[in-house]
Amino acid sequence: MAITAPRPPHLPQTGQSSGSGPALPGGGRPGDLPPVHNMFICVALPCLAISPEHGQLTGMGLEGVYHSGRRLLSRCQLRVAGREPVAVQGRLVSAHRARFIAVVRTPADTGPDPKVGVERSRDADGTERITLRSSAERPLRLPVEITLDTDLADLGAVAAGRPGPELRASVHDSGMRWSAGRGAHVVVTADPPPKDALASAGMLRWEVELAPGASHTIELHVRSDRPARSSGRTCSHTLPEARAEGDDPRLQALLRVGLGDLRALLLRDPGGSADVYLGAGVPWRCGPVPAEALWAARMALPLSTRLASATLRTFARTQLLGHGPDFGRIPGPMRDAGPHLPSSCTGVEATLAFPVVLAEAWRWGLPEQELAGLLPMAERCLHWLRQAAGDDGILSEPGPSGVQRAETQAHAHRAALLGADLLEAYGRPGADAWREWASELRHRFREDFWMDDSAGGRPAAGRLPDGRPVPHLGGGAAHLLDTGLLGGGRYAPGLLNRVQTGQLAFGHRAGAVRIHDTVVAVAGLAAAGDEKEAVSLLRGVLDAAEAFGYRLPEMYAGEQRTADGVPVPHPAACRPSALAAAAGVQLLMTLVGIRPDAPGCTVALHPVRCAPLGAVQNSGLWVAGEPFAVRVSRLGLGMVEEAADGLQLGV
After folding, report:
1. How confident is the model at residue 232 (pLDDT cuts 50, 70, 90)?
2. Which CATH code for domain 47-224?
3. Which of 175, 413, 457, 586 lies at a C-alpha separation of 20 to 30 Å from 214?
């Protein structure tokens, strides 16, 4: 079963979409986006560096060093002894750093082996170390030239094929300086200082003397008038280290790379607080998308509740207040939903996700004082849901479309049940009413959204305002399998009954594979007892992760797998993506089946019984504010190896 996806999601940093796909400045469409999936993207938001495989920044396409959406450096071309180095290898060494290896032939070379090696290490913030190493038998004197340039263009304009003109450089201290309108400027400094600096050519020059076996390093530093407010490397305490050891080494690789990408995507709240949240993805959606930030924080809960708490506080500050039908809603950009449904409002999804993430963070061990400060915002989200749901309890999309999406009903149902748990635990009124509302929604959904056919039936993707069903299922169907964590290690009931869940589990979907939807389906199918289908999807994600070097794009082609085939990313997919980076955590939690209830001082284990990947051992997790480690044997038996004092093993 492949989980389908709509066309590319909204690009919030570059414009809003009204229906057929994300819009770019100047009328560009997603099909016009320059290719980036064969590029090395170093990220430490709000900084990123996009490099080709050979490491030379030539100013072509999206290449360059960016800060807060502006290109600070478009060209950084190296020549040694009058020649461009011959690239032999390029690779990412971490989320924020790439390494490029090249060689240079000099007149002193008499055989087939070049005597000069070049190593370039480029960081997301534009810092670059260029090291020349000699293996020659006699001293070498090499002229080194670096040509620099910039247009100080916005990322959206570059992506739309409208970069700015190259700016005139001026010599500044030990480097170059460029200026544009509105006082914007960028400075590149070099250490050691160059022998010559030619402003007209944007060139820095050195005469490097290399003794036999010696090396020489030149460092470049890019500085702009926009000070960086955040870097994932300074927020590692938000997402501590975790390990996944076992028979399948891909689990640890996926977790390690994903954790690095999550840290690299962390941004500080633009309101000035110390809170952080996850940018949706690079390079197209570096800005805030509340729904995706909340879902990613939810998947990362086993690592720490800090990220969820900070994300909730960040978007609570954007919650709409005052009077009217929008009271309590969290605003969010539009997202394209494919050819069969109009664009959806991610603000609705974020509003319904808020009480879910808060309730599950509470189960994982969110401190009570933090929860108490966020509970009123969750109540406002539920208030908006009460007002927005129609007389029949079915939630329609705001705006003129009025469509009733199946996944929106699943989000609303989950918010009602988990919100009721919170209200009851803290003595707030309305818990029983919300559980009754959820029960009525289940009954109505199973009747109104289920389409019978000769194969046993399937859910509709949605209903139009006139009541007609939309039969074309997309990746959102996976959220009908998503439930939610209740007390005592229980899962909230889903919208579908057992027979309907089985029908969805055994169904076939075609199209692009969205990682978030797929890992949600894996967890939901495993919880429902459909382990064979869950394991099939899990193996598919791991195979794809290996093909992508464990940095998964947010979506890729859903073609039939063959022995010599490889997955192909969607041209507008972000990579790295917050949801894809958090997927490894979600898959691991499905395998080991941790169901915490920190308020009840219990934790239950429900591992996948067939142990599809053999033995697994997780450490570095956190439950009830203390380190937690668990092991699952090859027989599918779970054992807690480290836990907080007083935490009991539940049923």
Report:
1. very low
2. 2.70.98.40
3. 175
